[in-house]
Design brief:
Blueprint (H helix, E strand, L loop, with lengths): L3 E4 L2 E4 L2 E2 H8 L3 E5 H14 L5 E6 L6 H9 L3 E4 L2 H9 L7 E3 L6 H10 L3 E4 L2 H13 L4 E8 L21 E2 L3 H10 L3 E7 L10 H21 L3 E3 L31 H12 L5 E4 L3 H4 L3 E12 L4 E5 L8 H5 L5 E3 L7 E7 L8 E9 L6 E4 L20 E6 L2 E6 L4 H4 L10
Parallel strand pairs: 4-20, 5-6, 5-13, 6-7, 7-8, 8-9, 9-10, 9-11, 11-12, 12-13, 15-17
Antiparallel strand pairs: 1-2, 2-3, 4-14, 14-15, 14-19, 16-19, 17-18, 20-21
The protein binds ligand LLP.
The site of ligand LLP has 22 residues, from α10 and α11.
Length: 431
C-alpha cells in the first residue's frame, strides 16, 4: 500500500500534485508520504499486538528529521548505528530510552554519548567492544545496558551485500560463543545484561529465514533470560517490500523476488513468528527500516535530454547515482513512472543520470512511455536507503526533500546550497 497515485492523469502524493511540488522546489526531489509512513508503522504494530513489543525504526533507512518525528509521534523507538543518528533522533524529538545502538565499530566517544543519553541497549557485536563499553561506563560511573548480537549463521537468501547473519559476515557474535561471552559479561561491573539481539539481513521476501533463525535462537534466549534476568529479545529488521510492479516489463529481476501476491506481509510474518516468540515471555523488539519507509518515498527527476544512438534510447535525467545509488550498487529495481500519465506506445529506454560512470543507470532496456525533454519521471519505492545514501559525488548537491500530509506539503530538507558542498575545505596558504 502506498499513497502515490494518478488523479486525472497527474501523479499525486496523497492530495498534492507532484507537478506543484516540482514547480516550487525543482528536481531532483524526494517526496515522502506521511500517510504511508504512518500506515506501515501501524500495520506492523497491529500485527505484533499479541506480543509485548517495541518497534525501533532503523534510522539508516531514512534519517530525515521530519520522518523521524512522524514515527516517534506514533511511539516508535529507533535502531541507530552512530552518534550522528542518535543526535538526529534527539533533534527530532525521539526518546533515547527507546534507542538500541548497533554496529561493529562503536567508538569510545560514541559509547560515552549514548550512555549519557540513557539509551535502552547497546547491541554488542564483539568481545572487545564489550570490554570497551564496560571501560567507558566505568569512567562515567554508569552501568551500560547491553545485549549481544547473535549471528545465527542462517542464510537470509537475499542480495549478498545485505546479508548479515552468516559466518561470512562481520556482524555479531557466533552462535556457539554467545554463552561464554555472556558469562564474561556478567563478571564486568559496569554492564547490565538486558537482552539478546539478531538481524539476519535486509529485503527478505520470505518468512522462512526469519522463522529458521528465531527457531534456532529462541532456546538460547530462553536459557539466558532465565540465567541473567533478561528483558528483551530483538529479532532485527529485514522485512522486504515490493519493488517490482505485478507486471514488470523490464529485463531486470529484482533479486529474484517473487510477484507481489507472494510477498511477505506483516500478518504472514506475525502469524509465523508470534507462536515462536510468545512463550519466551520477553519484550520483543523489531528494527524495520525498509518496510516502513521504502514505499513512502519517491524520487522525482526531470528529463534533460533524449539521446538516440543506433542501439539505444537513452533518457538522460537530472537525478543520478549520487541521489539514489541502489541500482548502481545492488542492481536494484525501481519502478519508473511519468508524472503525467501517458497512454502512448512504450519504447525501450535506458534511464541514466549525468554522472560520468556507466553505472549511473536507473534501468536498462525497460519499456517505458516515450519521454521528451522537460518531462518529469518518478522513481518509486525510494523512501528507504535513497536520500540516506546520497552523496555529493561529481560535486552535486544533496537533493531536496518534501513531506506531504493530506493537502499540506513542506520542504523538510532544502536542496544543499552548492557552496556547502565544499564548505569544510581549505586551500593551504603555501599553495
Ligand atoms: N537492524 C540492523 C542491525 C540493520 O543492520 C538493519 C539494516 C536494519 C535493522 C534494518 O533493515 P531493513 O528492515 O531496512 O531491511 N542499503 C541497503 C540496505 C542495507 C541494510 C543495512 N542494515 C539497500 O539499499 O537495500
Amino acid at each position: 500500500m502506498h499513497s502515490f497515485r494518478y488523479v486525472h492523469g497527474r501523479l499525486h502524493c496523497e492530495d498534492v500534485a507532484i507537478e506543484s511540488l516540482v514547480k516550487r522546489h525543482g528536481t531532483p526531489l524526494y517526496v515522502y508520504s506521511h500517510e504511508t509512513l504512518s500506515r506501515h508503522f501501524e500495520k506492523l504494530d497491529e500485527a505484533l499486538r499479541p506480543l509485548d513489543h517495541l518497534i525501533c525504526f532503523a534510522v539508516k533507512a531514512n534519517s530525515n528529521l521530519a520522518v523521524l518525528r512522524t514515527l516517534s509521534r506514533k511511539g516508535s523507538g529507533f535502531d541507530i548505528v552512530s552518534e550522528g543518528e542518535l543526535r538526529r533522533v534527539i533533534a527530532a524529538g525521539g526518546d533515547p530510552r527507546k534507542c538500541v545502538f548497533a554496529g561493529v565499530g562503536k567508538t569510545e566517544s560514541e559509547i560515552a554519548y549514548a550512555l549519557k543519553q540513557g539509551i535502552y541497549a547497546f547491541n554488542v557485536e564483539s568481545e572487545p567492544e564489550l570490554k570497551r563499553i564496560n571501560q567507558v561506563a566505568a569512567k562515567l560511573k554508569k552501568t551500560a545496558p547491553i545485549a549481544l548480537r547473535v549471528n545465527p549463521n542462517v542464510d537470509a537468501h537475499t542480495h549478498a551485500k545485505i546479508t548479515t547473519g552468516t559466518y561470512e559476515n562481520k556482524f555479531g557474535v557466533a552462535f556457539e560463543q554467545v554463552e561464554r561471552i555472556y558469562a564474561r559479561a556478567r563478571a564486568l561491573r559496569n554492564v547490565r545484561l538486558r537482552g539478546l539481539q539478531m538481524h539476519i539481513g535486509s529485503q527478505l521476501t520470505e518468512v522462512k529465514p526469519f522463522a529458521d533463525a528465531v527457531r534456532k535462537v529462541v532456546p538460547l534466549a530462553a536459557k539466558l533470560a532465565k540465567r541473567y534476568g533478561f528483558e528483551f529479545f530483538s529479532i532485527g529488521g529485514g522485512l522486504g517490500i515490493v519493488y517490482q510492479p505485478a507486471l514488470a516489463s523490464g529485463d531486470e529481476t529484482w533479486w529474484k523476488s517473487p510477484p507481489a501476491r507472494k510477498m511477505l506481509t506483516p500478518s504472514k510474518y506475525a502469524d509465523e513468528l508470534i507462536p515462536l516468540l510468545k512463550p519466551l515471555g520477553l519484550k520483543i523488539l523489531i528494527e524495520p527500516g525498509r518496510f516502513i519507509a521504502g514505499n513512502s518515498g519517491i524520487l522525482v527527476t526531470r528529463v534533460e535530454y533524449v539521446k538516440q544512438t543506433g542501439k539505444k534510447n537513452f533518457v538522460i535525467v537530472d537525478a543520478a547515482m549520487n541521489d539514489l545509488v541502489r541500482p548502481a550498487m545492488y542492481d536494484s529495481y525501481h519502478e519508473i513512472v511519468p508524472m503525467k500519465q501517458a497512454n502512448g506506445k512504450l519504447v525501450s529506454s535506458d534511464v541514466v543520470g549525468p554522472i560520468c560512470e556507466s553505472g549511473d543507470t536507473f534501468c536498462k532496456d525497460r519499456m517505458l512511455p516515450r519521454s521528451v525533454e522537460g518531462d518529469y519521471l518518478a522513481l518509486l519505492s525510494a523512501g528507504a536507503y535513497g536520500s540516506a545514501m546520497g552523496s555529493t559525488y561529481n560535486t552535486r548537491p544533496l537533493a531536496a526533500e518534501v513531506l506531504v500530509r493530506g493537502k499540506r506539503s513542506e520542504l523538510v530538507r532544502q536542496r544543499q546550497p552548492i557552496e556547502m558542498v565544499w564548505a569544510g575545505e581549505t586551500v593551504p596558504a603555501w599553495l
